[in-house]
Amino acid sequence: MTTVVTGAASGIGRATALRLAAGGPVTLVDRDASGLAETACAVVAAGGAATTFVVDLADADAVASAVEEIETVAPVTALAHCAGVLVTGPVLDATADDWRAVLDVNLMGVIHTVTAVARRMAERGSGAVVVVGSNAGVAPRVGLGVYGAAKAAAHMAVRALALELGGRGVRVNVVAPGSTDTPMQAAFGGAGAAAAAVAGDLARHRLGIPLGRIADPDDIACAVEYLLSPGARHITAQVVTVDGGATT
């Protein structure tokens, strides 16, 4: 048995890989080979076991081949899909390339990966999937229209899949983080991003964070771990928002 973690090269994906590796072998997937190797080393240093696959999740054929190879070694019992890319700016300024870049990974990458894994889980009659979405896919955020649209579409697609697979022993849920201390957050907000997220900005229709801090990647990993665990056996088709109360 193995747990697959995509987007494992950094940020939430790395934190999730380290947390889930305490429960058994993990298979780490990302297109960033060097970051993936660093995560694998961290897993091993913590006493876990990891294998790695360098895959562009926007490539359906590459994803299918990787999942087939993983399954020849061990059945995938859990999937944490954490991969994502960020494009910011006004919707009116977004180019076709901007839309394509985000949709290829944040929507189609989810579809390619989740369906390839969940199809096999359904055949076996058991499995759990968690997709890391975003609170930008739950409520609109100024400057995140393209990103949020892709995340919202992914949320709905996987929730519909959860309903289709509920009778076949497979649970599918979404964890929707808010501002989180990751390289993606730093790229979006620059210096002072954390303080700005906590304070909020009514001119941008952005609420602050009632808990007074942005998330640590492990805060999100904990939610993923729970939804993949037997303790969440009666939870499916849900979006669990983990943003310190920023979305109300």
UniProtKB/TrEMBL annotation:
Name of the featured protein: 2,3-dihydro-2,3-dihydroxybenzoate dehydrogenase
Family annotation (Pfam families): adh_short (PF00106)
Highest taxon of the lineage: Bacteria
Gene3D superfamilies: NAD(P)-binding Rossmann-like Domain
Membrane recorded as keyword: no
Domain Ketoreductase: 1-169
Family in the record: Belongs to the short-chain dehydrogenases/reductases (SDR) family.
UniProt cross-references to InterPro entries, sorted A to Z: DHB_DH, KR_dom, NAD(P)-bd_dom_sf, SDR_fam
Record organism: Tsukamurella soli
UniProt keyword terms in alphabetical order: Oxidoreductase
The keyword Oxidoreductase appears for this protein: yes
